[in-house]
Each structure stands twice: as structure tokens, then as C-alpha cells.
Batch of 2 targets.
Target 1
Amino acid sequence: MRIAVLGPGALGSLVAVQLHEAGREVVLVDHRPERAARLTREGLLFRPLEGEARRVQVPVRPASEAGPADLVVVTVKAPATAAAARLLPGLLAPGGLILTLQNGLGNLERLAEVAGRERLLAGVSFLGATRPREGEVIHAGRGFTYIGPAPGARVSPEELRAVAAEFRQAGLPCEVRLDIEAMLWEKLLVNVAVNPLTALLRVPNGVLPELPPAWEVALAAAREAQAVASAQGLEVAVDPEARLREVCAATAANLSSMLQDVLAGRETEIAALNGEVAARGARLGVPTPVNALLTRLIQALTLARPYQV
Ligand code: KPL
């Protein structure tokens, strides 16, 4: 299976490096051709969970040179989804599959607008990945990746199993789940809690449970998201506190993706996470004051950057 990983951020780089080291046919797609050429030449510096750091020569290509792929794994940040979707027609082989491993809500809809729903897979990854600088990726936490058909997809069980097998052969635990929409929300519960608070406080994930006032806010954000899911007819059958503790422990050394964005001065995914929960809550009559406030605070943090002392 020829795989193109779209988005050379932390998660995309980690997935591409692991697939490449396992001998899978993979290319990492970078929208900046000069960076793609440099990363291909120099390799990615990979810091695994165990063992020594090493350079891995993953091929990195601009989209125009990366296809055709049987599977495109989309790992770009939510604000870049529409731009990434426009690359799909040139990247995908006929009948190829698209798998999004992105955080937040609204990504499936944006990809479907360009590529249709039939070959669309949704995925949720609890892997901890950090990209301290361009060309370097740290595997910072173990975690399962779940994949399943997006609503409206026409994908056979064999095809799903084949995609999961690619991940597993690369040492990335992966399971097929037919209730993937509920899984997306399960991940969202974690992201609306961990991401904005670690970004505001500038702490690794493992510190959050040690800060009682912040922990309470995190739990309240997760509980609101669970109530919104339930009002939409999706039962996210997890205990938010237990789930958050588990993820914070498994990714203790990781800087959340939102903290990494804030530190790098990039746009964050707050709109697709807490912003979407607050917006859907408002439509469904579910109060979401904590998610609304966290959205505002992260937006303010981004705007305040040039003035910070
Ligand atoms: O998904 C993540 C993220 O940072 O976006 C977690 C699971 C919180 C790991 O950091």
C-alpha cells in the first residue's frame, strides 16, 4: 500500500517515520517544496520512546510529486484542512482511501466537500508526538490509534483491516472501530480539557492533574463536551476524570499540540475544539460556559503575543 502522510507536523512526522522504518512505502507531504527537499536530504531527527535518537531518511515531497497514493493520511492542523483537501484529487490513486487523524470537529465535512464521503475514514490517535523544531520529532507517549468508516463511507472490512495492519506493522497500536464517531468525541473530551489548559499554563500534560484549580476547569470542560455529545444522540461512555488521568499519565512528558502551536506562534485548533463544543451547545440548548471562556482565552492569548512582556 502506497501511503502519503499529509502534514509534516508532530503527528504526521511520527507516523511517517515509524512507517518508513518498518519498510512501508510512505511519503511525507510538505506544502513547502524547499523544506521538503531539505528534509529529504538531511532526514528527520527521530527521538523514539526508548533508545537513541537517529536520523531517518523519509522521502518528503511537495504534493505535486507525492502521488498517487492508495491511502492519504491527513494530519494537518484543523485550520489547514480546507487547503489540504484541495490537494487530495492530485494525490489519491483511483479508489484510494483518505484517513483523517486530526483533532476536533468539522474536518470530515471539509474533506468530504472536495473528495466525497465514499472513501473517507475517520481516525483518532492518542499518540503523543512533539516537534520541538523543524525536522525533529519526539515520540513522547504511547497511545492507540482507532480507525473506522466516516458516516456515508463505502469501505470494506478488509480495506479497514489492511489500513490498521499498516499501522500495527509500524509499531503503532491500531484498532478498527465501527463506532468511530463516538471515539472522535471521546478524544474531543480529552482535547477540550488538556489542550487549552496546558497552552495557557505552559506545562506538559503530566503536570495538569497536579494543579487542582486547573484540573477542575479541565474536568468541567470535558463534562460539558460529554453533555453536548449526549444531546446530539452520541453516548460517550467514559468517565471523563478517569480518561483524562489516563491520557495525562500516558503522555506526561508531551507538550500538547495547542501548547506547541502557542509556543511556535501558530494558529491554534481552539475553534475546532472548544469553539465547536460551545457553538453546538448553543444550538442544542446545552450550557457550555467553560468551553466558551477557554475559547476566548486562547484567542486572546494569540492576539496578546506581540505585546507580551
Ligand atoms: O491529542 C493530544 C494533543 O496534544 O493534541 C493529546 C492526546 C492531549 C496528547 O498531547
Target 2
Amino acid sequence: MNNKITINIDFIKKFVTEDELNGIFSEIERINRQLEERKGPGSEFLGWLDLPNRTIESYAGFQELVTEIRQEADVFLVIGIGGSYLGARAVVEALEPGLDEKGPMNPEIIFAGYNIDSVYMTKLLEYLKTKSVYVNVISKSGTTTEPGIAFRVVKAMMEKVYGKDEARKRIIATTDEKKGALRKMAEEEGYRTFTIPADVGGRFSVLTPVGLLPIAVSGNYAETLLDGALNMKEILQNSSYDVNIANLYAAIRYLLYKKGKSIEILSNFDQKLVYFAEWWKQLFGESEGKNGKGIFPASANFTTDLHSLGQYIQEGRRDLLETFLIVKKIQDHIMVPEDEKNLDGLNYLAGKTYHEINLKAHQGTAEAHRDGGVPNMTIYLPEINAYWLGSLIFMFEKAVAISGYLLGVNPFNQPGVEAYKTNMFKLLGKPGF
Ligand code: PA5
């Protein structure tokens, strides 16, 4: 079917039997019930399950602010890291109009605070000098170092350029309702704010204003994104085990993991999905990788990476599994032209579109990797638009929750992230460390 997200699992059949899949059916059913009843580990962070049911109107002042930013700003600068950044970037990069569509985005969405790169920051400040800038600083804890220092630098720049009152109007803070330095600062400085619900963890927050505001500023996408997520939520609630993508995806990964496949590559064939894979890596890596367990999430951008990672995937260590993300319908249709002399021998491709060739590249790759010992499945997206991205986001969120419970870990915490911070704080002389 063209109008839904589907999964093809033909190429795992050599590696996982139907009996094995049916064997964990009752466990997956139990986990689904546990999630529904909100009784499993980390159940205080299950607020993301309700997000698709919210509407944009339920976020007070959201639409008015989006209109204002779109009218006033050349640049919407989004400051955040991890879950406070990747979801928005994934969707914005996927939906950005191509050069031959509507031209560059207005306002331009620029991300900062996701590294400690002084060259990046220096160039950014230089670039912003001639632009009308609005800033969205996003941090649930309100104390993360990378966005913290980026915001300090940008705030000083904004106050210098616009004066305190105008800067205040141009800064929007997205943070916890009560806790953290950013909430305190926003209240004292008088910034407009949006709240990240206490029961939604960072990497599950793209369907809150964390993701929705940048996404809405970049285009008229936020409501549709939520509609798509709601559609997937309903499908997952109502479909039986063998056609339920989240259940199947989680079950297959788990069975393969038990057979030694400890690395999963999310491979896309569309450049626009590169950041979607970055979001996915964080979602799965931070949710599963704990207590010495979990599949390591990696990504590949094909066909580009077939000429770098391709050799390893085909013939390297056999601890890989692969999930292809394939877009069925593409709007652009560049065709390979006929050439009279055919000196390059490519006339056999004349009249074929790039997309047709790309789909064959996927088919050929999936078969080769399966034959080389890499079990793989393919998730088909009907098109790249806000609706299907919203659907896919919710599907992966549900799948990682099931997956984490199958592994026996709490998928909603991230205690390991603190280790580098503690060392860095000690080295930098933060009081108390
Ligand atoms: O998923 C998570 O919880 C993390 O990746 C956080 O989003 C990330 O560390 C940023 O945290 P904060 O929003 O508190 O600045």
C-alpha cells in the first residue's frame, strides 16, 4: 500500500524463524500492556505517549509567536543539544525546500549550542551581524554546559545589538516548568517561555514545543507532524502483532541481538534523512545502552557510504544488522539523458529517473548485504513530509520503549551521560566538583 508506513522483513527470514518471532509474541503483548498501564521501569517518563493527542492551540501563544518570528526574523537561532536539538533538526532538514522548490527558508533556521566549537561560534556571530535574529534556547534541565555557554555568548550579543528590551522580546526559552537555571533566568529577564512537560524525557520531546516551535517556524508543519504521530499511535494500538511495525521491529532487533548482532545500521538512501538518522541514534543509543546491554546504533547515508562503509558491511565482522529507510515517492525527477556517442556506456540508463535508479540501488544493496550475512529489514515511507515524519517518529519511540523493556533496561533514563560531565566540571573547577 502506498499510503502508509510499511516494513518488509523478507531479508531477515534466513536469520530469524517464524517460530522465534511467534515465541516472543506474548512477551511483547505484556510489554504493550505495561506501557499502556504505565507500570514498567521509568513509567514516570511516559508523557510522550500522550503528545500526539495535543493540538498546537493547546500551547498558549504558540501560533502568534510563530507568525511574529516569520514576519520579523531573518534567522531563528535554536540553541540546544541532544534531545533538545536533534528532533527539530531532523525534521527541519528533511522538510527544507530544495533549491528548485520554494527557495531558501525564511527565516533561516540555524542550530547552535550542540558543540563547544569556537570556530563555529565565531563564524556564526559574524554571520548574524547583518541579520534580524530571534533566539530559542532549549534545555530541560536548564543547566547543560554546551547550550548554556552558547546562550551566554548569544545573549550578550543580542543585548549589545538590540538593547535589553528588544533582546528580551526576541529570546524564547523552552525549559522545565519550575526547575533549573534557565527557568529562573527566563522569569527574571522576562522571556517568553514554553514548558517541557516533566514526564517527557529529552529524546522523546520532539512533539513538544522543543521540536514543534523550530519546526513551525521553518514551515507550516507542526500540526501535520502531530496528526501523523496520532495516526501511527492509533495504528499501533489497533493492529495485530504480525503487522504492527513497532512490535515487529522491536522483536526482530531483539532476536537478532540475542544471536550476536550487536550493531544496527540505519541506512537511508535520501540525503534529507541524514539528520533523521542522527535523531534515531540518540533515541536508541541513550534508551538502550546501559547495564552492559543494548544494540549500538550507527547510521549510513547511501549510496555515498556504499563507497566507504560498504566494504565493511559486506565482508567485515558479522555482528551487524541493518534497517533501511526508503522513501517511495520523490517529487524531483531528474532523468538520465540519452547520449548519441554513449562514450560512458550509460545509455542503458537513459530515460530512467534518479529515483528509479536509487530504488534499484537499495534493492541490490539489501540483497547483497543479506547474502553477505547481514540481516536487514526495510521501512518504507510513502513520502518525505511532515505527516509521515510524525508517524515515523512515534513508531520509533514506541519501538524503543518495547525494545528497552525486552532487554530489561529502563529506556527512559540516561545515567551514563553524567560521567563525562562530572570529569569536565572537575577539570574546569565548577564549585562542588
Ligand atoms: O535525552 C536526553 O535526556 C538528553 O539527550 C538531553 O536532551 C540532553 O542531554 C540535553 O539536556 P537538556 O535539555 O537538559 O539541556
